[in-house]
Each structure stands twice: as C-alpha cells, then as structure tokens.
Specification:
Aspartate Aminotransferase, domain 1, 43% helix, eight-stranded mixed β-sheet, 387 residues, four-stranded antiparallel β-sheet, Aspartate Aminotransferase, domain 2, alpha/beta, 15% strand
Length: 387
C-alpha cells in the first residue's frame, strides 16, 4: 500500500485488519467526480464555497427526511433533522450539550472505543452493562439503574450502536430495544442511538430503530455517510425532537461556522438527489457480504477450536474471543512482527482489562487476499500460544 492512500496510521505494506474504513475500490470516486464537475461547469460552484445554514444543507435535509419516511415510516419533518460533521461530531455535540463533567452515562460492554474516548475527554462517569448475542442484557441494565437510584443518581443517557455493533457486529433485538425504552422512561435518561451501519445489512430486515419504537421521545439518532459513501466527506445527520434540534442549531459553534461542512454537504446533496447514493448502497451490500463470507470462511479454516467469533448480518466487524491462555497484548505484538494489525479488545471497554481476551477484525478495508492471509497468520499464532 502507498502511504498516501492509508488512513489513520495504517502502516505501509501491512495487513490492517483493524481499519474500519471502506476500501478504496468501494468508494464511488467516478460518481463524485461527475457531481463536482457538473457543479463547476454550470457555474453553481459558489454554493459549495460559502457559509451555509446552521441546520445544514436544505436539499440534503429534504432528501433524508423523505427517505427516512419512505423506508421507515418515521413521520419526521424538517424540524426533526440536522446535518452534522459525521456521527463522531454528533456524539461530541450531544455530549457537550447534555452533560457536564462527572455526569453518569451508560455504555455497552463492549462499546465503540472512539465514543468512550469522547466521554473520557469530557470527564464523564461511564458505567458499562454487558451484552450478549441479542444486545444489552436488560436485567443487568435494570439492576444498574436501581443501584444508581438508591443513591439518588441517574444516568444522563445510554449510548448504543444498535445495528451490527462496532465492535461486536451484534444487532440488538426488538424486544431488548423495547425493554431499554421502558427503562429510559421509568428512570429518566435519554437514548443516544448511533445508527451508522443499518444501511449495510446483508439479508432480511433490521429491527425498527429506537427512535421509531419510542415515537421520537427522548431518543437522539445519529446517521452518517462515512460508511456508505466516503468518510473523508465528514457528513452525517441527527434526528431528534424539534426542540432538541433547535437547541443544537442555536449553538455557538454552528452560528459561527455556518452549519456542518457546507462544501461536502452540497456535494452529497447533489449525489443523493441524483439517485446515485441509494444505488451505491445496494451495490455495497453485496460487496461487503462477500467480504464477510470470506472472512468467516477463513476463520473456520484457520482458527483453533477454542476461539469463538460473531457472525454479523451486516456492517464491518467480527468480534473474537480468545482462549483463556492467550492474551491479546501478546498476540498483538507477535502479529505485528508479521505485519498483521488488528484492534485489541481492550480499547472497547470502560475497564480495559475486560478486553484482555478479545479482538476486533474488520473486513471492510483490506483486499480479499490480505483478509485471508491475515486471518491465517492470526490462527497460526493463536494455536501456538494456546499450547
């Protein structure tokens, strides 16, 4: 690999099984170039280059509202949606507005490590709740909430990646979602739904969103074009109550900056309105499904019997549990000596020690031959270390 094409610290010549990014051949480069060229050619480039509306590009908002209502029957209006700088920007914005240092927030164990990083940056008190193959364990969540209530405490929000979770690939069931919504109403906390992978389902239908199931009450739902278009555009969206959206839109950052990345937002709006994005998403599902299948086949043929892994129905990630004798730190150092990099499970827990026997593999970025080769290297190393 050449360094210019390797995002976020990928080592040239390595097999980066940690990278949760779309591969270069999955980016719609030609389609985006046509959109940019058309804007330059018809003299409309000025709308790409100036400040924009605080709520975001109006054409993109209208497109997303229509699509959400068409595909999910959400019944939202323009007042329920704003454009943001990717879902990470949305997590940061929500955290700034809804919390102060020392506030309690609930997260899954494991949970998305960059969200945990943001919560640490804001000096929040994170409390984790374990998940199984159906999502958060509702009985454990209720126990945690009772314990907090007995001390006169309550969480500000529960942060969740409900579909094809990063890192586990697990999708929370409808029943678990409903249990969380009931508990959120009883104990008075918001739900921050980081729904960035739902368009990348490989078969069947994902459960209704927290936002849809709750009728939009006290749920803030994030989406992004990073996983289905291009992460470098840094464009996503937030769906919430009209009052909450108005509060965010009035923030000093948006007032000063003129909305989230007006250049990228105008480009994405044109691309989406042309019909190209939804067609690209449909194509991507097949591409990622094949990569997922290839990764699962490689795991079946390469891993010792004591290794366990998830079988995601969408998204980017597979989560591995190592044998008790194999520690992820040792495996990581040995794998890197052979040019294979993965995401250590320790980064996905509030207490890193909980991830000492876990790791995350991504099948979205590396080529199919690299995917097979990297998994084979890991399987051989784990077999040696487990003896």
């Amino acid at each position: 690999m050449n360094l210019e094409a390797t995002p976020q610290g990928v080592v040239a010549g390595s097999v980066p099984l940690f990278a949760g990014h779309p591969a270069r051949d999955l980016l719609p480069i030609d389609g985006l170039q046509r959109i940019i060229s058309a804007a330059w050619g018809d003299g409309g480039v000025a709308r790409f280059l100036n400040y924009g509306a605080e709520q975001g590009n109006p054409q993109l908002i209208d497109f997303l509202v229509e699509r959400m209502n068409r595909t999910e029957n959400l019944g939202i209006s323009r007042e329920n949606l704003m454009i943001i700088g990717g879902s990470t920007g949305g997590v940061g914005m929500i955290t700034r507005h809804l919390t102060v240092p020392g506030d309690i927030v609930l997260v899954d164990a494991p949970s998305y490590r960059d969200a945990l990083h943001i919560f640490r940056d804001h000096k929040l008190d994170m409390r984790s709740v374990p998940i199984d193959d159906e999502g958060i364990i509702a009985a454990d969540l209720e126990c945690k909430l009772r314990e907090l209530a007995s001390k006169g405490e309550r969480p500000r929000f529960y942060y969740v990646v409900p579909n094809f979770q990063n890192p586990s690939g697990i999708t929370m069931t409808r029943e678990r979602r409903m249990a969380v919504i009931e508990l959120s109403r009883r104990y008075g906390f918001a739900i921050v739904e980081d729904d960035v992978y739902s368009d990348l389902r490989f078969a069947g239908a994902t459960p209704p969103s927290f936002y849809g199931l709750a009728g939009g009450q006290n749920v803030l739902r994030l989406g992004t074009f990073s996983k289905t278009l291009a992460p470098g555009l840094r464009i996503g969206w937030l769906i919430a109550s009209a009052d909450r959206i108005a509060e965010f839109v009035e923030s000093g950052m948006l007032r000063m900056g003129g909305g989230a990345n007006p250049f990228s937002a105008a480009l994405v709006a044109d691309y989406c309105r042309s019909g190209a994005w939804e067609a690209h998403v449909e194509w991507l599902r097949g591409q990622y499904r094949r990569r997922r299948d290839m990764a699962l086949a490689a795991l079946e043929s390469s891993m010792p019997a004591a290794v366990e892994w998830t079988r995601p129905a969408g998204g980017y990630f597979i989560w591995l549990r190592l044998p008790a004798a194999v520690y992820v730190d040792d495996l990581e150092s040995r794998a890197q000596e052979q040019g294979v990099y993965f995401a250590s499970g320790k980064g996905f827990y509030v207490d890193p020690a909980d991830g000492a026997h876990h790791l995350r593999l991504s099948f979205s970025f590396v080529s199919p031959p690299e995917l097979r080769a990297g998994i084979e290297v890991l399987g051989n190393l784990i077999a040696q270390m487990a003896q």
